[in-house]
Amino acid sequence: MQEDFLHHIWQYRKFACIQLFTVQGEALQILHPGKYLQQAGPDFFNAQLRIGNQQWAGNVEIHLRSSDWYLHHHQNDPAYHNVILHVVWEHDAEVFRKDNSEIPVLELKTYVDKELLGNYLSLSSFKSWIYCEKDLPAIDSFVFKNWQERLFFERLERKAMPMIARLRQNENDWEATLFCFLAKNFGLNTNGDSFFSMADSIPFSVIRKEKFEVENLEALFFGRAGLLTEDKQDVYYGDLQSRWQYLSEKHQLKSVFVEPLHFFKLRPDNFPTVRLAQLAQLYHQRNNLFSIVTTAETVSELYAVFDVKVSDYWQTHYQFDKESPKKRKGLTSAFIDLLIVNTIIPLRFVYAKHLGKEVAEELMGFLEAIAPEKNAVVDKFSGFGITVENALDSQTLLQLKNEYCNHKKCLQCGIGIELLKK
Fold it and tell me: Which InterPro entries does this entry report, sorted A to Z (predicted)?
């Protein structure tokens, strides 16, 4: 048993609350269980209780056993001097405050319904992947959809946080912020951080000035990413080298460290050279990209925005000095979906909050029009009978697995709480 189960029981009074008695034999009435803090100090703040004939206001601490009070050294911590009730599953030791007054104790195991306890033990028993895997198909669809919506906004808020931080740093330059996060997602998981550092180290005013020649953008991106430092016979490589040297001096670009880019285990179409060339074409061909992606009304419009191919050189190369059969190397619909899900939708969310607009239904509509991601997590949930029809489904399942299942937060999860009721 974990303490979070006891927190849940106390917070929502999931036990027989009539005719309660402390282990000291005094009648106990819960007027208010207190505020669940989930931080350092007592578990519940400012509870309102009647113990015996006296009303108390103060904090409540919860442990599996009374002796845990001493195991955690609470007797020496001033933060616990105002504890008015010690709630435990099993009482195995008297507990005293620093002034030697005894703290009243409520032993929960005598008041908790056996069926609720059985449900909890079943939910928290070991499974091969997640605790509730065998019970998922039994969850009411209305409950699941409501929890799914909550998960969507949690994930959206998490993705929005670094964007908000970047906006603060660049004085609300929305175009520059979009550039940084588009670059990160062009780099995928393997090179995303390096692409972000590359984009962040080039003032967006430079991109605005040099976007009219795609070779200048390629020179800036490849040069800053550390891909123009060798001696090669390739004529195009030499041209980009010269442009990079000229542009870095012209715009007084300071030297910065960017993590080396990785090619190993990547499909050729995902090589960082190809992705940087595609990013250069995007900014060469599209003016006011931020305005375009934040006003697009359909996914089809966004697909059209990102319908770009690489320059002539990169149609016959994956790396410098190594010619390959000609290929357009445009952005695939699956790759554009990733850009929409991980960059465009979070940024539209942040921008709407900035304007004080409500766009929840709109953003969910975008995700519902996009195919679900294909990965091991989504496949597992599908195997348990969960229907995954679109990106809204897959995104919320990723949030569920990463933020709840992986951390065993069943009692903070809408599904886990529903299973406890059953």
Answer: DUF2851
* Sign of the CA dihedral running 162, 168, 172, 175: negative
Any alpha helices (H) in 255-359, and if so which ranges? Answer: 272-285, 289-295, 299-305, 312-315, 333-339, 345-355
Kindly tell me if the per-residue pLDDT of 279 is higher than 80.
yes
Q: What is the pLDDT of residues 381-412, one digit of tens each?
A: 999 889 999 999 999 999 999 999 998 898 89
Per-residue H/E/C for 11-61: HCCCCCCCCEECCCCCEEEEEECCEECCCCCCCEEEEEEEECCEEEEEEEE
- Type of residue at 1: M
User: What are the pLDDT digits (tens) for 295-308?
Assistant: 999 999 999 999 99
Give the HSE-up count for residue 57: Cα atoms under 13 Å, Cβ half-sphere.
1
The residue whose two tokens read 């460290």 is: 257
Could you tell me which residues come within 8 angstroms of residue 201 by beta carbon, excluding any fewer than 6 positions away? 224, 253, 254, 256, 258
Going by DSSP bridges, is the β-strand pair 322-323/317-319 parallel, antiparallel, or unpaired?
antiparallel
User: DSSP state, 40?
Assistant: S
Taking the C-alpha atoms of residue 237 and residue 230, their distance in angstroms, rounded to an integer, is 9
Span 334-348, mean pLDDT? 97
Distance of CA 73 to the CA centre of its chain: 34
pTM for the full predicted model: 0.80
Q: Are 303 and 331 in contact (CB under 8 A)?
A: no
Give the residue from 302, 309, 389, 314 showing the smallest Cα distance to 338.
302
